[in-house]
Specification:
Tesmin/TSO1-like CXC domain-containing protein; 6 strands; two-stranded antiparallel ribbon; alpha+beta; 242 residues; Tesmin/TSO1-like_CXC
Length: 242
């Protein structure tokens, strides 16, 4: 049987160990909190809707530093461009038709830039190949469920040869423009058509995202789910899942 001095020594040792564990726990929590500075706060923002009505570029408006170019739109009469304007999105009527005031949606704009940043490159895109690319996508059967697409397809039956281009341009306005009435967009990132409720293209991250993904304004990067894994910020819909 141990004497009383042995028992006292053992108790003291146990107490010291427990105290050390508590200190480590507090330290870990503080360390974790410092890495999640926006924990619990809503940090979501949508960079796709931050377009300004005009630019004031002192160069050629041919890079994403131009607010018009960044959002796939041509410059307009409100702009204060200095010198010749080289914004290739001035020529989107090649895809969308004469007199149609449409901008390229973010994914189409990225694709056009990657395929040559100039009016010449834009107008060298084979529109018939582009049309086939859209209609041969994996989600074609889903397209048939969309009322606007069904109407477009019906209109194309026995269409005169001289109206085929205008018919294709109507498809491009539905799928490739930022037309607010359209529920569909073609993702060049994924090579498929998506409903806007199921996917979107982030103009800042320059990639297509699932509906579960959102842009964190604090980190300036897209996050998955309701919480940003980098800063702890939350999406606007996170309260519905709390």
């Amino acid at each position: 049987m141990p004497d009383s001095s042995d028992c006292d020594t053992e108790d003291t040792s146990t107490s010291t160990t427990q105290g050390s564990s508590s200190d480590d726990s507090d330290y870990d929590f503080a360390k974790l909190a410092s890495k999640m500075p926006m924990r619990g706060k809503v940090t979501e923002r949508d960079p796709n809707f931050e377009k300004k009505n005009k630019c004031k570029c002192d160069e050629s408006c041919s890079s994403r530093t131009c607010s018009c170019y960044k959002y796939g739109s041509g410059c307009n009469s409100n702009c204060s461009c200095v010198g010749p304007c080289g914004n290739m999105f001035q020529h989107l009527d090649y895809f969308f038709g004469d007199g149609e005031k449409c901008n390229a949606n973010p994914c189409f704009a990225k694709w056009l830039i990657e395929n040559g940043n100039s009016e010449t490159a834009l107008k060298s895109v084979n529109r018939e190949d582009l049309r086939k690319r859209i209609l041969e996508c994996d989600s074609y059967e889903d397209l048939l469920e969309d009322k606007d697409f069904k109407k477009w397809k019906k209109e194309g039956k026995n269409i005169p040869l001289d109206q085929e281009l205008a018919h294709s341009q109507k498809l491009f306005r539905m799928i490739l423009s930022d037309e607010l009435d359209s529920q569909l967009f073609y993702s060049f990132c994924q090579g498929d058509v998506f409903n806007i409720d199921n996917g979107w293209h982030c103009v800042t991250c320059q990639s297509c995202q699932e509906w579960r993904e959102w842009h964190c304004g604090y980190c300036d990067k897209c996050a998955y789910g309701t919480t940003c894994e980098r800063c702890g910020g939350r999406s606007e819909v996170s309260s519905f899942f709390s």
